[in-house]
Design goal:
The complex is a heterodimer of chains A (319) and B (826). Chain A has 2 domains: 34-69, no CATH class; 84-318, MetI-like fold. In chain A, 76% of the residues lie in helices and 0% in strands. Chain A is built from 13 helices and no strands. Chain A is flat, with a radius of gyration of 25 Å. Chain A starts with a helix and ends with a helix. Chain B has 826 residues and is an alpha+beta fold. In chain B, the strands form 12 sheets. In chain B, strands 30, 33, 34, 35, 37 and 42 form a 6-stranded mixed beta sheet that branches. In chain B, strands 1-24-23-22 form a 4-stranded antiparallel beta sheet, with no helix packed on it. In chain B, 38% of the residues are buried. The chains are: A mainly alpha (319), B alpha+beta (826). The interface between A and B is large, with 35 and 37 residues.
Chain lengths: 319, 826
């Protein structure tokens, strides 16, 4: 077992190792005029995009930081971190942050694990493989308004689910206005995202070098060992990507909730985006900005952790 | 130049060109179109108004028409002492400002009354009038319609007629002959006595009520009646006829339509060419500069304008123009000096040329400091200027003219502009803005209507403007929730301004200021208000001035009335019990909500007993009858004047208690602005100018003005002295002299509500005291119902009303959702 692990690790290390280019001596001579011109032209070509990024991303970011530090956009009196304290103490913010965190903690791992399982399942020669793939991809093509409509038909108080439950003598449940609401939204989230994640994993699985897998089989490796020691390592970057995308999408689930239940839904599905969206509607830009910065800080930490994890699991692959 | 130098130069040009293109691309990319407002071309022209007061002896002008540069007006005045009316006709020249009597003789037969329904000018420059006449049997001969000289002579003639047994046959043909004789001789004034004499004899005969219509052609130079044609036969009706619109074409054919959407066309001699019944609604009939007359009807896609085809006896092809057709419902049509059509669409004026099909935007009334609500007639002078006949509607209508001259911007003294924002412009606010612009030499207010087409989009735009630093200077907060803006520091505290201007708070109703205070600061000025309340039968509710929700629901249950409120729906109940009483359900300090309380559950169950929508078609007793029969308990209403209080008192048979909306403190009467409420932006660059406008609204002059018009107006002034004048006026009796010359008190006016009508006499002291008490009891400001809250309650209560959920379940969900809203907004 130990030898197999060592061999495979060694092979993985060497497999994708880039061929080192022969070291070139760098001349310390001054840049020639043509090089300078080349650099200038490069910047010139880059400048429209740079200006766009500055204007639409960097500048708004600083505007948001500025708004989070003033009392309101009208008076613009500097209040330091008062807005952050106020937002942090706000019961609605706490509720929204808690719900969002809870949702992400449940929905994101599920979205990653289930889609990985589906991708692996579709790797095998099973009947109706192509139909399955289409089935899981189809939610991606359905417009959001239709998705909401379908979910309303399914989970409305007078919807299909209650009709079916009624057949078994179960009393009606108001799915979207009860503690079941977050479960409904998690199902919706998975239904909408599994297909896309699955395709990404399928692509990653197909790029694993076949010789490695064959060697592992020849070495009498069990399927779990192959999965754990080979596939998972090769999938680590894809897992990271899928996790980040799912995390981002988990924040975007507001769109579906908003269309299903409006600005003020049942408390279990009141998300951070609700809080920020409503703050915008009430001209409370300072609170919106403070909340956005806190949320982005959490996002940075989470994504940082994910990167560390990816480095840890995928270090053999990337060398 | 060497080849090298030439190359270098080419390179440099290329570089420069490339750099310039990059900059242009960058500007395009970054959307540097800032400011379509900043870079918008300055106005080239202004329409500068010149106001001309005219002294007319009329209560109202019924009809007016322009012929050349003269305006001919027909009006009437009612003599309260004699109880009779008198008609006048004037000619006014806007160019010189000269007003003259237009000496047309308007009485042709004794005992026959006439009025001018429509007027138009024909190709000869004469006025064609559609005259309605009626003869009432047993009518005492009315002197009022004669000239004073004629009156004296008539008295003499009447005496003769009374003593004479000789009676001239009251034959219509004879009358017509007599009239045509007069016409031929063109002796309008002097012949009047002769005509009266003949008709007086007619009057001695017993006769039936008769009504008929004539077409008169009258010269504009000396008011000679050139022809009188009885067109009653052409009208296809017996008796009365009302011509809604009238126009003449290039051949002087006369086009008009009645109130039943039927178009008639007569030739210039009064012979009928054809008539056509239209299935839809006729919105206008006017002459184009191509010699045709056009009719505007309601079609599938909005309004349709089509020419009337005399040859075919039908309507022609529709005129394709968005300005005239489509959504253009509220337009009035006049003729320009060159024959083009002038269209007044209430806020703006444009011309339309039927020959070229070109629409030309002219001006907005507001930009020209003219109140579009006051425009009764307009036209164009031969020198290109526009005129308008204005009427300030009040107890005594005040008529004036305004002449607008198109003036290059360079010749106009530009004032500092103050922007006034409103969701939609209230009639009274518009007048206030125009009055300010007319009188202020330093500042000029421009109005920006944010929500005239889409309220939500307008509100978002206003928010964006405010936060983006492009906000208005003054904001009309009567249509928005001012508390949201006040909390964000959008408004200026007005107390320091009042202090600086020497305005003493004690001179005003303290409770009104208090009601609009936020944290001891006054952000909003309400110049005029009324009290929003609910009236109940005192015998049913007891002698109370307020109640809480439990008491209200108890009384409703025990009173055993058929319906608690007339025409009430479930929404009405929520508005009455919850939305206007939010403090009982939300504690903003602690963030606690009580939407799952027993009281709210009671309200839900109470509301269930009301219909979702009221069926107004069902035959029911009127409100008054129901009150008298103890079938209803409450009536949501307002007290905007002493007269309104008197009416409510009369309606309840004196047994009335103004309990207002239920709340814990039992003070449920709410203050509501009646003609806008204003705030000054904290970021305004013209705060002094803005304050000049706002302070004008609480000035003695303005507030007394409210008192002056209060008999007709709506709402109380906030200044104590002006309010006293209101009460004084309400208590001043009006008299008439009876047949014995004795002064008898007469009604000041009459009021009606549903099935109830009442003559209002001078108020008694106790009535005024009661109104004072109602005003004093109002300590809270009415605020527009919270949209989010309304939405949540309506949404969640629906399954309960359909028996799908229990009241408790419903209340719990409402509580859950509202709690988030409350938490968010603390």
């Amino acid at each position: 077992m130990r030898s197999l692990k060592k061999d495979v690790a060694e092979k993985i290390k060497n497999a994708d190792k880039p061929v080192k280019a022969s070291a070139k001596k760098r001349t310390e001579s001054k840049m020639t005029a043509s090089k300078r011109r080349g650099t200038g032209i490069s910047w010139l070509y880059l400048s429209p995009s740079l200006a766009g990024v500055l204007l639409f991303f960097v500048l708004p970011f600083f505007v948001v930081v500025f708004y989070s530090l003033v009392d309101n956009p009208i008076n613009m009196e500097f209040v330091f971190f008062e807005n952050f304290v106020r937002v942090f103490k706000n019961a609605a913010f706490q509720q929204a942050a808690g719900n969002t965190l809870k949702f992400s903690l449940v929905a994101v791992p599920l979205a990653v694990i289930l889609s990985l399982l589906l991708a692996m399942m579709l790797e095998y020669k099973i009947p109706l493989k192509s139909q399955f793939r289409t089935f899981f991809l189809s939610p991606m093509m359905v417009p959001i308004a239709s998705v909401v409509l379908i979910w309303q038909v399914l989970f409305h108080y007078n919807g299909l689910s209650n009709e079916i439950l009624g057949l078994f003598g179960v009393a009606k449940i108001d799915f979207l206005k009860s503690s079941y609401a977050q479960v409904v939204i998690i199902i919706l989230f998975l239904w909408k995202n599994l297909g896309y994640n699955m395709i990404l994993f399928m692509a990653a699985l197909s790029s694993i070098p076949k010789d490695l897998l064959e060697v592992a089989v020849l070495e009498s490796a069990k399927p779990f060992q192959i999965f754990w020691y080979i596939k998972l390592r090769y999938l680590s970057s894809t897992i990271l990507f899928v996790t980040i995308m799912s995390l981002i999408n988990s924040f975007k689930v507001f769109r579906e909730i908003y269309l299903l239940t409006g600005n003020y839904p049942y408390d279990t599905i009141y998300m951070m985006q609700h809080f920020m969206n409503n703050a915008f509607g009430q001209l409370d830009y300072q609170r919106l900005s403070a909340a956005a910065i806190m949320m982005s800080a959490v996002m940075v930490v989470l994504i940082g952790i994910l990167f560390l994890a990816e480095n840890h699991f995928g270090k053999d692959v990337e060398g | 130049m060497s080849r090298e130098a030439c190359k270098r130069m080419k390179k440099q040009i290329k570089k420069a060109l490339f750099g310039a293109l990059t900059i242009v691309a960058l500007i395009g990319l970054t959307g540097c179109g800032k400011g379509s407002e900043d870079t918008a071309p300055a106005r080239e022209f202004y329409y500068v108004p010149t106001y001309q007061d005219i002294d007319l002896e009329v209560d109202y002008i019924q009809k007016s028409v322009a012929a050349g540069d003269n305006v001919y007006m027909f009006g009437s005045k009612w003599n309260h002492e004699t109880g009779q009316g008198k008609d006048f006709m004037y000619c006014y020249q806007p160019v010189t400002g000269e007003l003259q009597d237009f000496p047309i003789e308007m009485q042709t037969e004794k005992g026959v009354n006439m009025s001018i329904q429509q007027m138009a000018v024909n190709s000869k420059g004469n006025i064609v009038m559609m005259v309605n006449k009626y003869q009432i049997p047993d009518m005492t001969y009315t002197e009022d319609i004669l000239t004073e000289e004629a009156v004296e002579e008539t008295v003499a003639e009447e005496t003769v007629a009374e003593t004479s047994e000789a009676v001239v046959i009251a034959d219509e043909s004879v009358t017509e002959t007599a009239v045509s004789e007069i016409t031929e001789e063109a002796e309008a004034t002097t012949e009047s006595v002769e005509v009266v004499t003949e008709s007086a004899a007619d009057y001695a005969q017993p006769m039936e009520y008769r009504e008929w219509v004539e077409l008169w052609e009258v010269t504009t130079t000396d008011a000679t009646v050139l022809s009188v044609t009885d067109i009653q036969d052409a009208l296809e009706t017996e008796g009365g006829f009302w011509a809604q619109y009238m126009a003449l074409d290039g051949q002087d054919n006369v086009y008009f339509c009645d109130g039943n959407n039927k178009v008639f066309v007569l030739d210039s001699k009064g012979d009928k060419l054809f008539s056509k019944q239209v299935d839809t609604w006729i919105n206008g009939l006017f002459a184009g500069n191509d010699g045709k007359v056009y009719v505007k009807t309601d079609g599938e896609g909005g309004m349709v304008v089509r020419p009337v085809d005399v040859q075919a006896g039908n309507f022609g092809e529709a005129v394709e123009n968005e300005g005239l057709s489509g959504n253009s419902y509220n337009q009035r049509y006049y003729m320009g000096s060159d024959g083009t059509l002038l269209v007044n669409d209430e806020s703006r004026v444009f011309s339309f040329d039927f020959v070229t099909g070109v629409k030309n935007d002219l001006f907005a009334w507001l930009d020209a400091d003219v109140n579009s609500e006051s425009v009764q007639e307009m036209g164009q002078l031969s020198d290109g200027r526009y005129w308008a006949l204005l009427c300030e509607y009040s107890e005594n209508n005040d008529y004036s003219f305004v002449v607008l001259k198109k003036t290059p911007a360079a010749e106009v003294t530009v004032k500092e502009e103050i922007e006034f924002a409103t969701m939609w412009l209230d009639q009274r606010v518009r007048k206030n803005v125009i009055d300010f612009n007319k009188t202020n030499e330093k500042y000029r207010i421009t109005v920006k209507e944010y929500g005239s087409t889409d309220y939500e989009a307008g509100k978002t735009q206003l928010n964006n403007d405010i936060t983006g630093g492009n906000g208005p200077d003054i904001i009309d907060v009567s249509q928005i929730d001012y508390n949201v803006y006040a909390a964000k520091g959008v408004f200026e505290d007005l107390y320091p301004y009042m202090e600086k201007s020497g305005i003493n708070k004690a001179d005003y109703l303290e409770n009104v200021f208090k009601a609009y205070e936020t944290g001891g600061k006054l952000y909003v000025i309400v110049p005029q208000f009324y009290v929003s309340t609910a009236a109940a039968k005192a015998s049913l509710v007891g002698d109370v001035t307020g109640w809480n929700l439990t008491e209200m629901l108890d009384v409703a249950e025990k009173s055993n009335v058929e319906a608690v409120m007339p025409y009430a729906t479930r929404d009405t109940v929520f508005y009455y019990c919850v939305y206007n009483n939010l403090d009982d359900f939300i504690n903003w300090e602690t963030g606690e909500c009580a939407f799952n309380s027993d009281e709210f559950i009671q309200v839900l169950e109470f509301a269930k007993g009301f219909p979702e929508e009221w069926d107004y078609n069902q035959q029911e007793e009127g409100t008054h009858a129901k009150i008298m029969n103890n079938k209803i308990l409450l009536l949501q209403t307002s007290v905007s004047s002493v007269q309104e209080y008197q009416m409510m008192k009369g309606m309840f048979g004196g047994d009335v208690a103004f309990v207002g909306f239920p709340n814990q403190e039992r003070k449920g009467n709410l203050i509501q602005p009646s003609n806008g409420s204003v705030a000054i932006s904290a970021k305004s660059k013209h705060k002094d100018g803005a304050w000049e406008f706002v302070s004008g609204l609480i000035s003695e002059e303005y507030q007394s003005g409210i008192a002056g018009e209060n008999g007709m107006g709506w709402g109380f002034p906030i200044k104590q002295s002006a309010l006293e004048k209101v009460f004084e006026k309400a208590m001043t009796p009006e008299y008439y002299k009876d047949e014995n010359g004795k002064q008898v008190e007469q009604p000041k006016t009459s009021w009606g509500y549903d099935d109830f009508n009442i003559d209002i006499y001078a108020a008694k002291q106790e009535e005024v005291d009661a109104v004072k008490a109602i005003i004093a009891s109002a300590e809270k400001a009415y605020s527009p119902s919270n949209e989010e809250l309304t939405k949540i309650v309506n949404e969640e209560a629906a399954p309960f009303f359909k028996d799908q959920k229990s009241a408790k379940e419903t209340a719990d969900i409402i509580q859950n959702r509202v709690q988030i809203y409350v938490n968010e907004n603390r």
